[in-house]
Amino acid sequence: MQLKRYRDIAIVLLALAVPFWFLRASMRDPKQASGPDKVIVRIASPVQYAAATLARGISNIWGEYIYLVDVKDDNAAVLSQNARLKERVRKLEGLEEENRRLRRLLDLKTNLRTDAVSAQVIGKSTNDFFRVVRVTLDKEVKDIGPNLPVLSADGVVGTTIKGAGDTVDVRLIVDAGAAVDAVVQRTGARAFVRGSGDDTKYSCNVEYVQRTDEVEVGDLLVTSGVGRRFPKGIPVGVVTQVVKRDFGIYQQVIAAPAVDFSRLEEVVIVTGTPIDEPQASKDAPAGTPKK
Asked: Whole-number mean pLDDT of the chain?
């Protein structure tokens, strides 16, 4: 037991003395260093070098880790800010588009030079190619009856069916029960645009186009103003197909509506009679239905 005790004391003293000797040898002037000091310095140099290298390595690793943590935090902040800016840009673009649509609608109401009320689309029929939409009026208006013209900034939308309070049902011109008296803008040829009622696409049949009339794909059809129902010169549709027949009075013409109904959001309901428009023409083409 005595031996073990002395051994432990010797180890402790040696452990305390060795660092002191190394420190003493390192601090002494090399010119005044004794032989044992030089031996201690030679032994200590590799250990000190290894310890310093290890310390630098650990320090670099820790610094890089802290740097990466900071970079990660910065990247997260930048990504969050970028997402907020994108969302803000998206909202601003939406407001800009809405403002553009409303300006066009206001210009339309001004150019109509008759009583009209604007409305927002709030409902559509359930099928993909709906034929009826429901709108809510921007202000209370009395006597929104049936068969009033409904327009958008792009052209003819259709006619009113019935109203209840501030909501009105509108039949689109692609419905089989809708019809508009029109002319080919390029040539002035008379036509009668009737909805095809096709459940697979938006299209209209252009009836009573005489076989001798010049009509081509891409021609714009506009309201004729006949009957003082629709204001004159409003786009109705664009000719998409012409089948010229070798017999009969009329040729077969198909048109697509001028309005993109899938994106219809605002409309104008014409409640007054268009002014400065001609009375119903007495020389309408034979067979043209009365409206």
From this structure: 79
